[in-house]
From TrEMBL:
<dbReference type="GO" id="GO:0005829">
    <property type="term" value="C:cytosol"/>
</dbReference>
<dbReference type="GO" id="GO:0006508">
    <property type="term" value="P:proteolysis"/>
</dbReference>
<dbReference type="InterPro" id="IPR000905">
    <property type="entry name" value="Gcp-like_dom"/>
</dbReference>
<dbReference type="GO" id="GO:0008233">
    <property type="term" value="F:peptidase activity"/>
</dbReference>
<keyword id="KW-0645">Protease</keyword>
<protein>
    <submittedName>
        <fullName>Glycoprotease family protein</fullName>
    </submittedName>
</protein>
<dbReference type="GO" id="GO:0002949">
    <property type="term" value="P:tRNA threonylcarbamoyladenosine modification"/>
</dbReference>
<keyword id="KW-0378">Hydrolase</keyword>
<feature type="domain" description="Gcp-like">
    <location>
        <begin position="31"/>
        <end position="131"/>
    </location>
</feature>
<dbReference type="InterPro" id="IPR043129">
    <property type="entry name" value="ATPase_NBD"/>
</dbReference>
<dbReference type="InterPro" id="IPR022496">
    <property type="entry name" value="T6A_TsaB"/>
</dbReference>
<dbReference type="Pfam" id="PF00814">
    <property type="entry name" value="TsaD"/>
</dbReference>
Length: 221
């Protein structure tokens, strides 16, 4: 399956195209410049591959959770490209991607959600179960799934001490450097676990409605 994938859910921009056995990718820290850089970098990858949009089978986009503005930018770009080329979309949750990237069998994926909270979910790859479904919590209130877990994601960089105290012996180690990768999204899309949808059916997973604190709320933190 020939695919284009893009993730704009964090301060990194991750792009990948996989076609005819070749994988090309771009992964860099861009801060808040996703709207400015995504299309030019994607056009560059397409030029390097010597292919056009119509040569692909689908476009894979990040459903979230993650940065509100980044998710909307990525989804909008994916929808526009898919509509222009007559392609379906495949949406993949960011926490699924983090868990897939980590080599461990039992992974607690955790992203900084800002506002003093984290997005998290626990994945048991051996059983295919989700002992902790995706949610958003304050680190000190994160539900602790049974058993031992390896952490993945920048939530452990931002709230490392709080999460270590909360999880205790349940957390064996954590890779706080992991951020969602478009190459990993392509691997997941090829697993056939995620449905193809029409561009107008694209949805995002925010997990909360409020996306910023007021000045007074920030002062109280």
């Amino acid at each position: 399956m020939n695919l284009i994938a893009l993730d704009t859910s964090t301060e990194f921009l991750s792009l990948a195209i996989a076609i005819d056995g070749t994988l090309l990718n771009e992964h860099q820290h861009v801060g808040q410049r996703h709207a400015e850089l995504t299309l030019p970098l994607l056009r560059s990858l397409l030029a390097d591959s010597q292919h056009v949009l119509q040569d692909f089978d689908a476009i894979v986009y990040s459903q979230g959770p993650g940065a509100f503005t980044g998710l909307r930018i990525g989804c909008g770009i994916a929808q526009g490209l898919a509509l222009a080329a007559g392609l379906p979309l495949i949406g993949i949750p960011t926490l699924d991607v983090l868990a897939h990237q980590h080599p461990g069998p039992r992974v607690l994926a955790c992203l900084d959600a800002r506002m003093g909270e984290v997005y998290a979910a626990a994945y048991d790859k051996e059983t295919g179960s989700l002992p902790l479904a995706m949610g958003v919590w304050k680190p000190q209130e994160l539900p602790v799934p049974d058993g031992q877990w390896q952490g993945a994601g920048n939530g452990f960089a931002v709230f490392g001490d709080s999460l270590a105290e909360r999880l205790g012996a349940s957390l064996t180690d954590a890779d706080s450097s992991l951020v969602p990768s478009a190459s990993a999204m392509i691997e997941l899309a090829r697993s056939q676990r995620y449905s193809r949808i029409a561009p107008e059916q694209a949805e995002l997973v925010y997990l909360r409605n409020k996306v910023a604190l007021t000045t007074a709320e920030r002062a109280r933190q």
